[in-house]
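Input/output pair, single chain:
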Amino acid sequence: MTTDILTSNFFELFDVPVSYDVDLDLVQQRYRDLQKVVHPDKFANASDQEKRISMQQTSRINEAFNALKHPVDRAIYLLSLKGVDLNLENETTMDADFLMMQMEIREELADIRDKDDPLAELDNFSKQIKNDMAATMESYSAAYENDHLDDAKELIRKMQFMQKAKKEIDELSEKIEDELF
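Output:
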């Protein structure tokens, strides 16, 4: 077994270019290929050290796969490769327009049950967030590729908010559906 799995960055591990725009189908295929080689089941009769290394490699492959497949995690990881450490829990966006949009989204979600067709409203809301997320991801990719790292950090904060908003919309939709049916 090779220890390169434990020392390679996530992009090297999956043999894809270091870029925000990754081929997720290729990453998925390479994930399966790597798992076939190092999965602990293949080492059931191996030495304790080989079993331990297999577990470490499998864990690293899973960590890399999850980071690359999720847009916000991939963005954060890319910045970490450039030495930028993000503490998204304690940092908030400074863009006044975006802060206003956040407040409006929160207010709309709080009042959604008063609408004539809350599920349709939530569906439209979800589509809007999805479109906004796609545009923000494009902007992040350009900022990262052009080494505008402060802009990239700001865009990650926005993506993180939109990801949370999308989750809240989905949860609220499920809750309202359960109540209606």
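The first helix runs from residue 4 to 7. The chain has a mean pLDDT of 90.
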